[in-house]
């Protein structure tokens, strides 16, 4: 069988994700009960980070350790990756020594190139194009609270960047309706939008996007690498704040999500992110459970059904 990579949500079918999400639920229950199945014992995950991370690093590193494996953190600063060794050569070498590689890259092309030369699964842990791992967590967290996301209405309000692209992919794969509101000049890539068909609608205002939504989502206004544009972005995005007024347009039981880190008083008010509709901490925790299931799916060729034995 050819190597399974996870570079975009479009890489697998909804049926595959249903297996991964069901396994994530079983792993969460096991974890909550203090049980740690060691389905990835003696497996090693290489983790390449060209950008900062808290949640992604922790969830992958803790996740594989909890399944009996090990992670190795590879920073370009301390490896030859940062000194110009070709990606192809790095991929050929690294993938001979580990069982999977997770990459957070500035340029999506780098992850594709690495995957093309890798003998083992490569996981996209955020690029300038998308952030598929976050969407597994977001769908999981939504469904834990509200049941199937299929046919629901989701509002994306903010930058049409990597997270927005993964929401568009998710609308296609999980079959939900997505309303997107971004400032002029910050719209998502039209090719990504077109691929999702008629499930995705671009509207002008935050209120229009939130209208009748079951889930309201945003992200930072200046992503990693866009720090120089921060002042301009603060001005351009100022009518796209998620506040109580925006949430009032959504359904009364709508949830609020944010991949984090968040800036209270910029893209979201403290009242919303710290309020009763916000599930951001559950969303962050879901990274752990969903990525454990994803690691099994990619490394073992399918998710395991081993839920381990209670610790004596
Ligand atoms: N949401 C997310 O990917 O967070 P980190 O940047 O902390 O990994
Ligand atoms: N859009 C953000 C997401 C961080 C998890 C960024 O790329 O910095």
Automatic annotation (TrEMBL):
The record's keywords, sorted A to Z, are:
Cytoplasm, Transferase
Catalysed reaction per UniProt?
carbamoyl phosphate + L-ornithine = L-citrulline + phosphate + H(+)
Could you name the Gene Ontology cellular component terms for this entry?
cytoplasm
Q: Which residues form the Aspartate/ornithine carbamoyltransferase carbamoyl-P binding domain?
A: 4-143
UniProt xrefs under Pfam families: OTCace, OTCace_N
Residues binding carbamoyl phosphate, per UniProt: 53-56, 80, 104, 131-134, 259-260, 287
Report the subcellular localization.
Answer: Cytoplasm
Could you give a single Gene Ontology term from the biological process aspect?
citrulline biosynthetic process
**Entry-linked SUPFAM superfamilies:** Aspartate/ornithine carbamoyltransferase
Q: Which domain of life is it from?
A: Bacteria
**Keyword Iron in annotation:** no
KW Cytoplasm (keyword) present: yes
Q: Which family does it belong to?
A: Belongs to the aspartate/ornithine carbamoyltransferase superfamily. OTCase family.
Checking PANTHER family in the record gives: ORNITHINE CARBAMOYLTRANSFERASE, MITOCHONDRIAL (PTHR45753), ORNITHINE TRANSCARBAMYLASE, MITOCHONDRIAL (PTHR45753:SF3)
What's this protein's name? Answer: Ornithine carbamoyltransferase
What species was this sequence derived from? Answer: Halothiobacillus neapolitanus (strain ATCC 23641 / DSM 15147 / CIP 104769 / NCIMB 8539 / c2)
């Amino acid at each position: 069988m050819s190597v399974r990579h996870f570079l975009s949500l479009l890489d697998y079918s909804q049926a595959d994700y249903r297996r991964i999400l069901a396994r994530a639920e079983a792993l969460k229950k096991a974890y909550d009960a203090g049980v740690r199945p060691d389905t990835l014992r003696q497996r090693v995950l290489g983790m390449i980070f060209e950008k900062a991370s808290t949640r992604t690093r922790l969830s992958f590193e803790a996740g594989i350790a909890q399944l009996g494996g090990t992670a190795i953190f590879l920073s370009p600063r301390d490896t030859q990756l940062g000194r110009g060794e070709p990606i192809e050569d790095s991929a050929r070498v690294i993938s001979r020594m580990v069982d999977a590689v997770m990459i957070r890259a500035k340029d999506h092309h780098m992850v594709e190139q690495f995957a093309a030369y890798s003998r083992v699964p490569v996981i996209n842990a955020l690029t300038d194009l998308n952030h598929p791992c976050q969407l597994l967590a977001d769908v999981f967290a939504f469904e834990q609270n509200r049941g199937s996301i299929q046919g629901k209405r989701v509002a994306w309000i903010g930058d049409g960047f990597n997270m927005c692209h993964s929401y568009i992919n998710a609308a296609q794969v999980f079959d939900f309706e997505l309303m997107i509101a971004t400032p002029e000049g910050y719209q998502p890539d039209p090719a990504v939008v077109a691929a999702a068909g008629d499930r995705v609608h671009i509207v002008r205002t935050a209120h229009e996007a939130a209208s009748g939504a079951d889930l309201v989502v945003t992200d930072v206004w200046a992503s990693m690498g866009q720090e120089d544009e921060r002042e301009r972005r603060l001005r351009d995005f100022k009518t796209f704040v998620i506040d109580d007024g925006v949430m009032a347009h959504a359904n009364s039981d709508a949830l609020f999500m944010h991949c984090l880190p968040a800036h209270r008083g910029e893209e979201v008010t403290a009242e919303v992110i710290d309020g009763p509709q916000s599930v951001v901490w559950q969303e962050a925790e879901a990274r752990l459970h969903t990525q454990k299931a994803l690691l099994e799916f990619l490394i073992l060729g399918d998710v395991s059904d081993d839920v381990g034995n209670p610790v004596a």
